[in-house]
Amino acid sequence: MSSRNLDLYFYVAFLFLTFMSIGSSFVVIAWIAVEDSSIAVLGRIFLLSSITGIVISIAGGILTDSWNRKIVVRLGLITQTTALAILLFGITQRLNLPPFLYLFSVLNTASMAVKAGAIDSIFQSIICKEKRISMSVKVSIIRQLGLAIGMGGSGFLLEHTSASICVSLLLIVSTIRFFISEKFLINLKNIKNRKSANPLKLWTEGFSYAISDKNLYISIFGVSLTFSVAQMTNTLIPGFVQNELSASSNVYGLLEMAWSIGGGSILLIAAFKRYPSTLKNFEAFLLCLLGSTMVAFSFLRFIPALILLYAIMGGLFSITRARFDGKLLTHCSEDMIGRIRATTSVLTNSSGMIIYLIPTIFPITSVSILYTTWGAIIVLVGFIIWILKPT
């Protein structure tokens, strides 16, 4: 077996455990916050995560493109392990948990943000440029599977054991991830150290690089815009189920299950279909379809049809995100990936903060109106990207 193929297997295993940890951490932290304190504490945790993600992404992008990427990955993993150890200490010692939850949120988000670009550079070093879009779709299946197992497994463990056991297992998984990462970091090429480590100059250089390539800046914007659909959905759908449908939490649970099933199904089909699509600007076409399903969803009130459409929406979201992400990794040079990924993260987190604040800032009388409006915007942007005709 070639060294590159072996690196790919270790990378996929690392990615699976990473997203399993993300899904599990989300469920465990949310449960602890609500059970020990209140929903308000959980809201502050999400807000802290968004703010930390923006700030650390900026620093992480510079570190990735001007420093030793192996050290950046190790720094992120050690920070995450430290965050889990601190949280476990707070739980086992039966201390006042909110401060520990806030600290965990900041450190955990920082660990993911600081190493995001470096992890992307590993993908670029393993996968040749021509195969990155198709491989990004296949890798998304691993992400989806990891999230599903992490969220479902942690829910089961919380029900039958305790939060301390869940966090202990996450700590073990975090340690395993560190050792797995060492297997593919050995062959990761270091970039040349920059003569100038001026952050402003590095970011100016990255911005100029991004706007000089139409494919690249459309991919950056496309990833962030696609994520906004999930952010808008997470914010509005609970209220839509309660107020517009007058339904119970069972319907909400079925909708979320349908979203996951739809996402996994369409990624499997796309990953293993024999012939690639010959449609130009395929991502723009997917955006138009995604926005259209949002509009249609907001007008429907027949629950079985809503569940089916929600599954389609989840599938379109997953494949659109994977395609844009693959194009970003294809068109971005390896020495710029840190700042480009950081730009995407800042844009995504900023739009998320705005979306999460919309129900508070604006007096919304109908959730469906806002959902329809956002869907129409997605369709409009899809047409604009189609007109721009990225190659």
Describe the structure.
With 391 residues, this protein is mainly alpha-helical. The chain has 13 helices and no strands. The protein has helices spanning 3-36, 39-66, 69-92, 97-126, 132-160, 163-185, 199-211, 214-244, 249-272, 282-299, 303-331, 337-361, 367-388. Helix 1 runs antiparallel to helix 2 and helix 5 runs antiparallel to helix 9. The radius of gyration is 21 Å and the shape is globular. The protein starts with a helix and ends with a helix. The model has no long low-confidence stretch (mean pLDDT 83). It comes from Vreelandella subterranea. Its main location: membrane.
Element order: H for helix, E for strand: HHHHHHHHHHHHH
> Main beta sheet: strand number and arrangement?
none
**What's the name of the CATH homologous superfamily of the largest domain?**
MFS general substrate transporter like domains
- Low-pLDDT stretches: none
> Class by helix and strand content?
mainly alpha
Report the count of strand segments. Answer: 0
Overall tally of domains: 2
- CA radius of gyration: 21 Å
Question: What do the pLDDT scores average to?
Answer: 83
User: How much helix, percentage-wise, in residues?
Assistant: over 70%
In CATH, the topology of the largest domain is named Growth Hormone, Chain: A
- CATH top-level class of the largest domain: Mainly Alpha
Number of helices: 13
The CA-CA distance between the termini, in Å, is: 35 Å
What portion of the residues fall into strands of 2 or more residues? under 5%
| Second rung of CATH, namely the architecture of the largest domain | Up-down Bundle
Question: Could you say which overall geometry the principal axes of the C-alpha atoms support?
Answer: globular
Transmembrane segments: 9-33, 39-63, 75-95, 101-123, 135-156, 162-180, 252-272, 306-324, 345-362, 368-388
InterPro entries: MFS, MFS_trans_sf
GO molecular function, one term: transmembrane transporter activity
Protein name: Major Facilitator Superfamily protein
